[in-house]
Design a protein that fits this description.
Elements lengths: L7 H16 L8 H19 L4 H10 L6 H11 L20 H4 L9
């Protein structure tokens, strides 16, 4: 298994992002429950980072997921909102086959590649 080494900057960004996202969660400021929620967000953030997702995409994804977020929810979100090149490594090549909604699977709403 590949281990992820975060730089100091990435670590600061991760903590700030997770705390910001956690503050929007239902358990804000409830001691152990709030800490558990933050822990889940942090684990998910790190898992998505390992998958090769861009930080901006991860932040958007986590901020739009239901609470508490799961990796499965995050992967579904990626398939619906990211283009093939931005997908986590484990989903690349599965693109539109993974999508469940008819409108998202409609190729006519994607800009044509030159």
């Amino acid at each position: 298994a590949m281990s992820l080494k975060l730089s100091t900057e990435q670590e600061k960004l991760l903590v700030a992002t997770v705390q910001r996202l956690g503050a929007d969660g239902p358990q804000q400021g409830q001691g152990a429950a709030g800490a558990k929620h933050l822990g889940k967000l942090r684990q998910l953030y790190e898992a998505l980072l390992k998958e090769g997702m861009a930080v901006g995409d991860i932040e958007r994804c986590l901020s739009e997921l239901p609470s508490p977020p799961t990796l499965s929810d995050a992967m579904d979100w990626c398939c619906l909102h990211l283009d093939e090149a931005s997908l986590p490594r484990s989903l690349q090549g599965q693109g539109m086959g993974h999508v469940r909604t008819a409108e998202a699977a409609d190729p006519s709403d994607k800009p044509a590649q030159p």
